[in-house]
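Retro notes (design track)

What went well: tokenization of the new backbones is finally stable.
What didn't: we kept losing track of which sequence belonged to which structure.
Fix going forward: every design gets posted as structure first, then sequence, in one message. First example under the new rule, 121 residues:
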């Protein structure tokens, strides 16, 4: 998943910005979109692309309660479909880049920890 508005990972995977129907920006903005249907399927590597629109969506979401968790909550659906999920984040601390990635990893870690603790009794 490309979480950088510059979309270098997206373009590096061969997806032209003008060919993107739905990017991570729309997934954050529009809760009605189905996360699973918006995955670009590649040869051995799938992608949820980014676009420059992500920077605008980040500005729109300022002040929205738990906006940085919006993407993390949607990605929970992907946990059972992929053994590895790569999150490409921007080099700066951005709400839907680095903070979302940290939220996703924390949710994943807490889920794994909870399962482990249940097995311990």
């Amino acid at each position: 998943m490309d979480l950088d508005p510059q979309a270098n990972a997206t373009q590096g995977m061969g997806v032209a910005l003008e060919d993107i129907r739905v990017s991570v920006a729309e997934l954050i903005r529009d809760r009605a979109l189905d996360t699973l249907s918006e995955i670009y399927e590649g040869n051995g590597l799938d992608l949820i692309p980014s676009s420059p629109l992500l920077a605008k969506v980040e500005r729109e979401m300022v002040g929205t309660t738990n906006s940085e968790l919006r993407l993390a909550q949607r990605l929970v659906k992907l946990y059972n479909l992929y053994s590895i999920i790569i999150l490409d984040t921007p080099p700066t601390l951005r709400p839907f880049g680095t903070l979302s990635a940290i939220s996703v990893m924390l949710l994943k870690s807490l889920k794994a920890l909870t399962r482990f603790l249940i097995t311990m009794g």
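Added context from the reviewer: Residues 8-120 form a domain with the Rossmann fold fold (CATH 3.40.50.300).
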